[in-house]
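=== Structure Prediction Worksheet ===
Name of assembly: unnamed complex
Input type: mixed (protein and possibly other molecules)
Chain count: two
Listed entries:
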Amino acid sequence: MSDNSYLSIAGIRKNFGKFEALKDIALDATRGELMVFLGPSGCGKTTLLRIIAGLETQDTGTIRQDGKDISRFPAIRRDYGIVFQSYALFPNLTINANVAYGLVNRRQARGAIATRVAELLKLVGLSDAGPKYPGQLSGGQQQRIALARALATSPGLLLLDEPLSALDAIERVRLRGEIRALQQRLGVTTIMVTHDQEEALSMADRIVVMNAGQIEQVGTPREVYEAPATPFVADFVGKINVLPAVAEGRGQFRVGGVSLAVAGPEVAVGTAVKLYLRPEEIALHPVAQANGHPAGSLANGNATGMNTIDAHIAKVEFLGAFCMVGVTLDAAGTPALVANVPRHDVDDGCMAAGQAVTLRLRPDALRVLG
Amino acid sequence: MVRAQVHWQDRLAQGLLLLCCLLLVLFLLAPVATMLLRSVQDSAGHYVGLEQFQDYFSTPALRSSIWNSLWVASAVTVITVPLAFAYAYALTRSCMPGKVLFRVIALTPILAPSLLAAISFIQWFGNQGLLKWMLQGATIYGPIGIIVSAVYATFPHALMIVLTSLLLADGRLYEAAESLRTSTWRKFFTITLPGARFGLISATMVVFSYAVSDFGIPKVIGGNFNVLAVDIYKQVIGQQNFNKGAVVGLVLLFPVLVAFIVDWTMQGRQQAQFSSRAVPYAPKSSPWFDRTMFLFCVIVALLLLAVLGMAVYTSFVKFWPYDMSLSLRHYKFGLVDGDAFSAYLGSLKLALIVAVAGTIFIFGCAYLLEKTRGAPLLKSVVRLLAAVPMGVPGMVLGLGYILFFNDPDNPLNGLYGTLGILVMSTVVHYYTSSHLTAVTALKALDNEFEAVSASLKVPFYKTFFRVTVPVCLPAILDIGRYMFVNAMVTISAVVFLYTPDTRLASIAILRLDEFGEVGPAAAMATLIVITSTTVCLIYAVLTRYIVTRTQAWRTPVVL
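=== Predicted Assembly ===
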């Protein structure tokens, strides 16, 4: 545990009947960071959040917050603010009363409360909403109010339980930027639960990828995306191609009829492994036509250790800024791959189904995992 | 194993829930258990096994009551449920005019004690009845009278259940069927009927239970036709044979309990049937169908009004059938000058207390069940106890109360003969459906209000008063109204429990009828109807006021 650790979790287990929701979870959140629990539904991320909030009780394990052992504290004695997917705003109270809900209880002077409420509403950009009722606001606005209410009492820890899941796509993107900016400005240690990898990648200081009650990987968004620690992480975060392969020694791996150079630790000859490759790491080059178009630059590809493979385009799917291009390798026994190609490259390169192409793969773009 | 510290607020909530549980044990479980116990004891308290049952089943008159009760209740069910279904079908699937009026008229029987129907049918078809000739020698005093009166009394109960299930239908299914060119009949049998299946089963069970356990109707119009509910009354009040009464009570409890369990199991299966995305069905006009349905509803509504109207008319007729001129003498001399009026005031007092105390108890208990943390075992016990009253006939409950509370060894013996015991028996008797109303309203609230409050360090009771109660106010008022109206008309449980100091209007009707004072009896019934109607109107106005004023936040509700 580092000195700067704010929340420290150790040995957390939780069973619901025979179902193991959490299997020995240990985790440290640094003061002021935004940590995201990412995983598919049922992976235990929400249970872990609720245990941190004291809304569920762990079977075993300890939780320390700001140096204090809070493992056995009931929710009401812990120090946190919480925002739920459903907003959970009190429908019969005005926005002002909602935000002031936790302040009124602290016997503060009326004027002080009003000032604080106005300050919070300004913070979330809804200064005029005070006299309205939650039902009169949009989903995104309601979630901003829920955030203001959670922050009103200046808690040491902010918990966000899928805060953006109920919103439409545009609102979601806008609000995730706002929440991140606000969190950095206030420096409040924050834990957010989500199943949306894009949300996690864009907001988190560190991501905790969870699966089946266990932590698969803890790392910065870049680490998790570029160096997934397990096949699950590779598969769950972003799109990825999986190539079954056999180690041939000296960094070479055989995939069907193709041999690929892969940067990374040595694997015993003959071991069956899987190679992971992001779609955007595949460079596609149309094979020179009869009139001799730019094949020259490809010729010395092997000299720099770059893998080149002959393939054909199976289909092109238009996705807006990018196109998803499905390719089949010409060598026997090789899997079909998916590549992401910027839209204008597709237009320029007259890529269409049936077109012969050369794939170029950097050895360090291929990752070997169990 | 980590054990979370229990905050004093959680302890408070659990303590209150324990109190609710104790009250239900004391006022529901203990009386019923006592009755079960007494059925295998002789009057001296010795265990005699099934001797009393043998004795009971060897008495032909008593044995025939079982058969009588069952077939009469079955007949009532077979008539009421299809009638209610057709009526509900007209209200939901046709474009006939006057739907609101038809609905209001159909619900009027709820406002009156079941005795009113019996009195009214006697006035129509009895010995001095206006339409006696129509029976062609048959008599209304017996199964015919019981059946028609019970059909009248159970009609609104069945209607409300079936109506709800028809309103839940998903319009998209009909649109899909239409796009496949499905015939009207096929749509009815493949969409409408299966959709209303659970409602129909529920209505069947509710009507059957009501008919089998109702006491007022057979008492007034049954003549020499014996049924179980009246047998209990005769054994207990007539012969003071409590243990024999307990045996009959057990025999009566059995079919009602079976009906209740069938209904309960079916309700459990219903959950998955309707998705929350269902689109309400909007009927299209079809002149021939609409006219037929309108005609049907007019006939049913007129019949219902004829029953209520006759009772009201009787209350104004000077001296049936000799002097048919109208006067207020039954109200003046029969009620006010006689001391029946104090019974009316007694009922009013009971209904008000039941409406206030019962609503607080039931809603509070449902809140503690649904929204507080911990005590899972206690919660399952309370949930079960809350469901039981639906399966216990009022007569059985009342008899259990006598046996349990009238025991000199019971420290609560002092309750016997007080208004308190009448209040508790009425609240418990009508507990289940109010409980379900409360639970439904509470479940509609965001589950995380309590978690948010805890994170803001606000005690749960503050959130209860500031948020939960205001948001659930329409449901709370609904429970209050339901409790009030039922306390005004109830007779079965309280008939064993009232004393000269705590007389009630519905029982006064029974007494007046026994003495042949039909005019004053009808006047009292009319008074009850007027009172219940007033309360329902106040409820409607209040609800509207609340929805429009204090609940400005509420998105407009389509009623």
